[in-house]
Amino acid sequence: MAIRQILQHLRTPIEQLDRESLRSWTSATHATAIADVVPRKPVQICGEISSVRIVPRAGSPSLQVTVTDGTGFASAVFLGRRRIRGLTPGRRISLEGVAGREGRVFELLNPRYEFLTGT
Amino acid sequence: MAALKRILVGRPLATTEQEHQRITKVIALAVFSSDAISSTAYATEEILFVVALGTSSLTLGLSVLVPIAAAVAILLTIVVTSYRQTIHAYPNGGGSYVVSRENLGELPSLVAGASLLVDYILTVAVSISAGVAAIVSIPAFQSLRDDRVALGVLLIVFITLANLRGIKESGRLFAAPTYLYITVLTILVSYGLARTYFPGIFGSIQPVPFNKAAFEGSRYAGGTLGLFLILKGFSSGAVALTGVEAISNGVPAFRRPESKNAANTLMWMGIVLGTLFLGVSVLAHHLRPYPSHDETVFSQMGHAVFANGPLYVVLQFATAAILTLAANTAYADFPRLSSIIARDGYLPRQFANRGDRLVFSNGVLFLAGLAGLLLVAFGGITNALIPLYAVGVFTSFTLSQWGMVKHHQREQEPGYKRNMIINGVGAVATGIVTLVIAVTKFKGGAWVPIVLIPLIVLLFRSIHRHYSRVSAALEVPSDYRPPAMDHTVVVLVGAVNLGVLPAISYAKSLRPNRLFAVSVATDENDHERIEKQWAEHDIDVDLEVLYSPYRELTRPVMRYLDEIDARWHNDFVTVVIPEFVVNHWWEHVLHNQSALILKGRLLFRRGTVVTSVPYHIPEEHR
User: Fold this and answer.
1) What is the distance in angstroms between the Cα of B590 and the nearest Cα belonging to chain A?
2) CA B549, A85, B501 angle in degrees (round to 5)?
3) Which of A64, A58, A118 is nearest to A93 (CA)?
């Protein structure tokens, strides 16, 4: 049995392992899973920054940060700023705000953010 | 490489030059009949081996040699006559496979096709090894005895190259030895028989001196000659018929009018083969050669008729040449047949393509490869394979003739009843021979094709299933309207440089619904550096910086593509990869190939287009 489990584990793609470890980490916090977010309600989510969008100098300044907690993707948009120290790819953060929709994912406009530690 | 190919194979031929590649009857006889005619060199011996060694009595064996040979000759006449019908009915060639396909259905045609393909591969391996054996038995070349395999491979390479140059050129090259063999064998038979029957005019002739040590049996007395042995001897002699179907497969290679020319060539081949084979057997009956592994029956008879004169040497050389060239017939037919089977979707499509020189080069190379493999695997001694292929040959004979019977029945052309009888007799005769061979030679190797052919038929079927599935999936429904596309373009950016900026402009020119530049960062320094460069060059495209936990490119990009698919409905995502092109192949070593790995992964992602935008690094100034 144990051998079969090990083999199973070895065959699991890294992406899935990443998602699972993120999920087990976020489920330990009081945050809502991104998949369970309801629109137009205050919500707290947390996750790892998977990408940071830099807008061109000519456009109006804004910073979009996408986080994932293993259940889905959500974005935070900070208007009027080009960058926030510490909001860099790979960081784990907690976001608090009202979820709106951008395309098919939720977007939190100017949310409260907090840096988290731990793995 | 290109220059080497030009030397070996010659300049490419245009499709319009195909007409000039057709061959005359004289060359065709050499190309398509070298296999059949070469069997005169060993068929008599094969019969003797069975009947004389089987009874351990040379006299008893010799007593049935001529009757058996006559039976084989009658069979040959039947087969040739009915194949002439096939040629007229199916001028586009294909022989047994096409005839079975048109008249008997899928399964019989696949069995015929598989039998013929196996037959051709074995023909090459067997005839090359027989040719090598004949070469090394010439006293001057005996030192080559230990290099059989190398010599055989060399011959395969030579014949392959000649065939890649085109059927006309290989035909011209190989016609001379074939005709030399026919001539010298005619002299052997007629001079030998003349001396036997008219010793007063031509000088008397002595039988081959009996060598007790070389023949494992007695000269006179001996065991019994049962029906089984006679049938077994007959099925050994039936190898003389291998290669008869070659012409019917290659009709389109003939000059116009193809059918008439091919039918006449087939008739001439039948006459030459039948006469020489019978002649050799009758002569053997008088000269009493003994089957032995030390000296071939052929060589014993050559000695008896020509003594040690120059004609004996010519006979040996011509025999070696024709045994080798028998392979050439398979080269003429295998590619043609495999192209027809491939066109029907039972073999990979590549076999249906004509190469630079208008031959089906892939078939030629495939045949050479497999035959070479067999030759090496058997250490250059493939005579053991001879009984293997008679089963396949006769299976295809039977199927094609039975198909012709059905054909006549359906067409009811003038005189169809006579034609039905001709083909019907042929089908029954070859069908019986197939059974006889399968039974009498089962242990001797006939079981191999009996196992192998069904396997090949299964392979054909699964290839066909794949092609049917693909073509059904590609079928355009009648109500199809091209959809409007929602399209996101992603440009990969390592650093801002001259390779990347044009790629961004290119991506803009695609006018997608959304456009992002994407860069992968492993730490904060990467992030800051690319952010600074982006501002510095004032690039008016959003830049996404991706996190790469494992310091590599592929996974973050794949995850990002999943992210944008989650965010928007995309019909297509185009990933634009700027690539610089270096001037020398070795310069590639200096650049990591992460883009290549990414491309490999993206190939299997649905709705993903990968575009490489090249940037040619200028040559250094000298």
Assistant:
1) 29
2) 65
3) A118
Answer yes or no: are the C-beta atoms of B277 and B77 closer than 8 Å. Answer: no
Distance CA A108, CA A87 (A): 15
The answer to whether B526 and B556 have CB atoms below 8 angstroms apart is no
- Asked whether residue B67 carries a pLDDT value surpassing 60, the answer given is yes
* pLDDT value at residue B550: 82
**Which of A48, A53, A90 is nearest residue B544 as measured by Cβ atoms?**
A53
Q: Which of residues 490-529 of B touch A (CB under 8 A)?
A: 516, 521, 523-524, 527
Question: What residue in B sits closest to A15 (Cα-Cα)?
Answer: B555
- Whole-number Å distance between alpha carbons of B417 and B409: 8
Q: Do A54 and B541 touch (CB under 8 A)?
A: no
For the whole model, what pTM was predicted? 0.77
Q: Identify whether the C-beta of residue B272 lies closer than 8 Å to the C-beta of residue B85.
A: no
B75/B72 Cα distance (integer angstroms): 5
DSSP type of residue B444: I
Rg (CA), chain A: 16
Amino acid sitting at position A39 = P
Residue B282 pLDDT level (bands cut at 50, 70, 90) = very high
Mutation site for B-interface testing, chosen from A52, A64, A84 by largest number of B Cβ within 10 Å? A52
> Using one digit for the tens of pLDDT, what is the confidence trace for B542-552?
999 998 888 88
pLDDT of B200 reads 78
User: By the 8 A CB rule, do B59 and B219 touch?
Assistant: yes
- Classify residue B442 by its DSSP letter: I
Q: Please, which contacts does B468-476 make with residues 24 or more away whose CB atoms are closer than 8 Å? A: B468/B345
Handedness of CA B514, B520, B526, B530 (dihedral sign): negative
Contact yes or no for B559 and A50 at CB 8 A = yes
**A77 three-state secondary structure:** strand
Cβ partners under 8 Å of residue A29, min gap 6: A46, A94, A116
Q: How many residues in chain B?
A: 622
Residue A15 to residue B555, Cβ atoms within 8 A: yes
Cis peptide before B67 (omega within 30 of 0): no
- Cα–Cα distances (Å) from B77 to B83, B145, B272, B275, B570, in that order, read 10, 39, 11, 11, 70
Chains A, B: CB contacts within 8 A come to: 77
Give contacts of B560 with chain A, Cβ < 8 Å.
Answer: 50-51
Q: What residues contact residue B11 under an 8 Å CB cut-off, 6+ apart? A: B356
Confidence grade of residue B386 (pLDDT, cut at 50, 70, 90): low
Residues B439 and B441: their CA atoms lie apart, in Å, by 6
Q: How far is CA B423 from CA B108, B113, B404, B426, in A?
A: 17, 19, 6, 5
DSSP-derived letter for residue A59 is S
Pick from B285, B390, B300: nearest CA to B67: B285
B558 touches chain A (CB under 8 A): yes
- In whole angstroms, give the CA distance from residue B477 to residue B499: 42
Specify the DSSP class assigned to residue A39: T
Whether the predicted pLDDT of B218 surpasses 70: no
| Rg (alpha carbons) of chain B, rounded to whole number | 33
**DSSP secondary structure string for all residues of B345-400:** TSS-GGGG---TTSS-HHHHHHHHHHHHHHHHHTTT--GGGHHHHHHHHHHHHHHH
Q: Are B95 and B248 in contact (CB under 8 A)?
A: yes
On whether the CB atoms of residues B370 and B121 are closer than 8 A, the answer is yes
Contact by Cβ (8 Å): A65, B545:
no
Model confidence over B245-274: pLDDT tens digits? 888 887 888 888 888 888 899 999 999 999
